Amino acid sequence: MLDERLERIKRKRNCRMHFDVDSFQISDCTVASVHDIPDVIYENQEFDFYVESIYDVYLLRIIHSPDYVVSIYPAKADGIIYIVSFIPVSKDTVKESIQKVLYTLETYGFPKLKNPKSSITFNI
Q1: Is the pTM value of this prediction over 0.85?
Q2: What's the rounded Cα separation, in Å, for the pair 78 and 121?
Q3: Separation of CA 14 from chain center
Q4: Three-state secondary structure along 34-47?
Q5: DSSP designation for 122
Q6: Which of 1, 32, 73, 113 has its CA 20 to 30 A from that of 59?
Q7: What is the longest distance spanned by two Cα atoms in the chain?
Q8: Per mean pLDDT, which range of 6-15, 22-31, 51-60, 68-77 is the poorest?
Q9: Across the strands, what pairs with 70?
Q10: Are 47 and 33 contacting, i.e. CB atoms less than 8 angstroms apart?
Q11: CA 10 and chain centroid, separation
């Protein structure tokens, strides 16, 4: 348990540089975009976001798709919990899409989402 806590602290410290003035709040989380969102988004185009809660930091990848599927992948040693979502997204709705994904993660303990033993996939 102490090792898990130290890993979370280390992840938060290592990811701190990604959060800046362009970061935005969604609920109790700070979200930092890795990519600029273009005006036109193509099928299967990917966008990455760092999501910091009080508990941990996560990497959220949104893939523009008509599917509504989310997968949670466990962090490897010195890694980060990786959340991949297939969901329709546009430049105007990116915040709402992120909020929708984060809301569905509450079933699995988000914003205190613990590192799963294996990957988890579910439909929204």
Answers
A1: yes
A2: 23
A3: 16
A4: CCCCCCCCCCCCEE
A5: E
A6: 1
A7: 45
A8: 6-15
A9: 85, 122
A10: yes
A11: 17
